Amino acid sequence: MLALKAIQRHVYGFIPLTLCLICADLQAQDMTVSGFASLSAGRTNRSDEKLIDYGENWSVRSDTVLGLQLNAQFNDRFSLMGQVVSRGFSYDDRDDFEPTVDWLTLSYQIDSTKQIRIGRVQNPLFLFSDTLEIGYSYVWVRPPIDVYMPILGFLHSVDGVDFSYTPHTELGDLAISFFAGETDGVYNNRITTTADPIVGFNISLDTGDAIFRYGFQGFELTQRSPFGEIGVAFSALASVDPVFQELSTSQELDDAWYQYHSLGAQAYYEDWTFIAEINGSVSPEEDMSIRFFGTYFSASLSGDVFTPYGVLGYSRLRPNTELTDFLNQSEAIIPSGIMPTLDALRNFARSNYEAISMSSYSTTLGVRVDIHPQWALKAEIQYFSGGTHLVLGSQIDKNKDVILATIVVDTVF
Amino acid sequence: MDVLTVIKSMSIILLLTANICFADFVVIVNANSDIESLDATAVRRIFLGKEKLYPNTNEKIKVLDQDRNRKIYQTFYKDFIGFRLKQLRRYRAANLFSGKSLPPIIKPDDDAVKAFVQAEPAAIGYINSNLLDDSVRVVHQWAP
């Protein structure tokens, strides 16, 4: 099975590369190299926990990004795009600034409105999923992290195929895409996630004054975490009562089907731009499943040079409540104080549950300064109430708020 | 001042005035292209990278832009396409780095656009209408 997975991953990830080499013989008609970069500096008011790796001392690493892209057009129909990105910080197990392939696609343009791609694309979860790292392309320092990161941390790219249809209609420019593939990743060096398969579709309508988008995806999720070791310990008591077996399996997730829905809109009125998104998951309410909900509203006023903006956000994570029920049931069977080891296990499981279960409001104020046609300077300050789940699973003090200040320079070349 | 001189002077003034009054642009393609005309929506979609192949020929479109400091570039995108230039730059960056479309090929002026369109069957560009001749085909024209 593992060998099959490895082959599958190679098929998705390296077919475009192989075809690129084959097509190199055909000589690309056009080949272009372009890139983007962001240099940031930021700090928080917290010394006890880091927020996207910013702490109480100024750091120039977390939002610093360098990306290089190659586009090759082989003929009227076939083209290839590869993008390598080096980030100062990521939620997965990559080392700082380790280059990773974010995009590698071979595209075939069927006709003027239909296209099929194979390879690696960014998971189309949000309005700005495709351009998360391209700070120059949006007004903020970064897209609303409290809404975007809890799910992007796990599922940021998809290896597979997609088909898009982009006709013009009476209402405006329509874009419909379907995709299927798989993805995996490691979150915060602790939680290993595999979504296989992952399938979905997105519909967007651009009326000229506004863009409306709905996205759906379903994925079969498997998660492994250090909490799984607690599960093994609980299973030793499975012969005493079935609830200990339930506690054992509730620490991980196996082949659970999730649904994810997202609704977004971007509207222009004179010099104002308004953006709103709402998204959430429907989880199977079993084992270590987590239900996610997030929403934000952004307003910006575009001047010739200065673009001030503000964002209000809310996000919530709710783990499967069965876990606390099982813990309570187990205490009815073996009360606290009888088995110190069991008490420690239960306390650990309960604290993990509470660490994952959280909600947060955020307020962001900032300004973008277009200092040059290809350079933008941004400064923003963000306030997160009641802690934040950007450090999912850690024992952060939720009674203390977080303030994050960031300055960034974005460019494209 | 004789009558002829007066008529000549008036003609020059009229011609200059006409140039100002009709300081529009035309969208041009190769003279041998199968494209006869394009409506405003089609032109807008082509220059925003939403159409990659010509609808009736499925030939890859080569979109030409003029230098961004030229007046015609600003008129074309602000008044015709309906994008602020800052918004356009962000849009183009997003399209490029998400694989949606490549930015247009940039030419320094009208003459360079016309020369490229003459030589390249799949090219499309915009030039001031007063520079038009029969070496290229007009598929759309616009006046403010």
Supply database-style keywords.
heterodimer, A: 413 residues, alpha+beta, 16-stranded antiparallel β-barrel, 6 helices, 16 strands, 19% helix, 49% strand, globular, B: 144 residues, 5-stranded mixed β-sheet, 5 strands
Model description:
The complex is a heterodimer of chains A (413) and B (144). Chain A is built from 6 helices and 16 strands. Chain A has 413 residues and is α+β, with helices and mostly antiparallel strands. A 16-stranded antiparallel beta barrel of chain A has the order 1-2-3-4-5-6-7-8-9-10-11-12-13-14-15-16. The mean pLDDT of chain A is 86. The termini of chain B are far apart. At the A-B interface, strand 1, strand 2, strand 4 and strand 5 of A face helix 2 and helix 4 of B.
Quick overview:
The complex is a heterodimer of chains A (413) and B (144). Chain A is an alpha+beta fold and 413 residues long.
Strand content of chain A: over 45%
Helix content of chain A: 10-25%
Element order, helices and strands of chain A? HEEEEEHEEEEHHEEEEHHEEE
Q: Supply Rg of chain B.
A: 17 Å
Strand order of the largest sheet of chain A: 1-2-3-4-5-6-7-8-9-10-11-12-13-14-15-16
The first-to-last residue Cα distance of chain A is 43 Å
**Biggest sheet strand line-up of chain B:** 3-2-4-1-5
Distance between the termini of chain B: 38 Å
SSE sequence of chain B, one letter per element: HEHEHHEHEE
Main sheet overview of chain B: 5 strands, mixed
Quaternary structure of the protein: heterodimer
- The helix fraction of chain B, in percent, is 40-55%
β-sheet strand percentage of chain B: 15-25%
- What Rg of chain A is obtained from the alpha carbons, in whole angstroms? 23 Å
Strand-pairing-aware structural class of chain A: alpha+beta
- Extract low-pLDDT stretches of chain B: 12-23
Average pLDDT of chain B, rounded to a whole number, is 87
Largest interface: A-B, 42 and 28 residues
Structural class of chain B: alpha/beta
Q: Low-confidence stretches of chain A at least 5 residues in length (pLDDT < 50)?
A: none
